[in-house]
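We were asked to recover a plausible sequence for a given structure. The inputs and outputs are reproduced exactly as logged, with field labels preserved.

PROBLEM: sequence recovery
POSITIONS: 241
GIVEN STRUCTURE:
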């Protein structure tokens, strides 16, 4: 059996370099786009207001621009999500990561959830883009994740995605924390979705070991802020041929 050749380029091409923290400054945005440019990541994932600037900063690079819609809680109306999507694509985004309406998922109002994903995906596809649907798995049970995978498959979404990285759940101690991308959830999503629906893992992936574990599970895209750390580690460790 022919073994897959792992290169820095192949790893970088799996990364959406994430620039989504609430405190992100203009300088942070420029520095983050420079990191994406340096490593030639698949995309840089920025907040909606920053799409045009990111596109300009990466105009001489193959790196594409991703943005988020109804981030991080997914609570906007479908109309608002569609309009936000249209605006983002008009400004130069080519991939859109949209958060589901978590309350509707937990209510199991699947008609609402399905129609919303359809309307957003139709909008994106008509402009030649790709939709990634963010589930926010920390809030969900396996039955919700399975049904969401089925709906995303039925509606032709390009990706299903684990988390925003901001889905904090109140713990018994009173503190808020999140798990993000877990082996269990990623395995469940990959097993449930057909091969034409890709899986993006995001939330808490900060090391090469975690990255490769997700890759082994069938993930084809990673959302990460630790891009420089992960890829530098890959170079130093000799993982790449």
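RECOVERED SEQUENCE:
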């Amino acid at each position: 059996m022919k073994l897959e050749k792992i290169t820095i380029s192949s790893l970088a091409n799996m990364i959406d370099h994430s620039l989504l923290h609430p405190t992100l400054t203009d300088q942070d945005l420029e520095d983050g786009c420079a990191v994406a440019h340096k490593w030639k990541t698949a995309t840089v994932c920025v907040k909606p207001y920053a799409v045009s600037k990111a596109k300009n900063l990466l105009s001489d690079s193959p790196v594409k621009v991703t943005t988020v819609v109804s981030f991080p809680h997914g609570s906007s109306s479908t109309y608002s999500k569609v309009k936000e999507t249209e605006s983002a694509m008009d400004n130069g985004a080519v991939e859109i990561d949209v958060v589901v309406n978590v309350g509707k998922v937990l209510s199991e109002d699947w008609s609402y959830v399905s129609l919303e994903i359809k309307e957003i995906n139709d909008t994106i596809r008509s402009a030649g883009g790709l939709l990634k649907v963010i589930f926010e798995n920390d809030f969900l049970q396996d039955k919700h994740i399975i049904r969401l995978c089925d709906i995303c498959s039925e509606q032709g979404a390009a990706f299903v995605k684990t988390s925003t990285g901001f889905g904090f759940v109140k713990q018994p101690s009173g503190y808020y924390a999140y798990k993000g991308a877990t082996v269990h959830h990623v395995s469940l999503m990959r097993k449930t979705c057909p091969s034409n629906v890709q899986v993006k893992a995001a939330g808490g992936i900060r090391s090469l070991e975690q990255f490769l574990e997700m890759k082994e599970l069938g993930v084809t895209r990673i959302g990460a802020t630790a891009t420089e750390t992960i890829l530098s580690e890959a170079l130093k460790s000799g993982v790449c041929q």
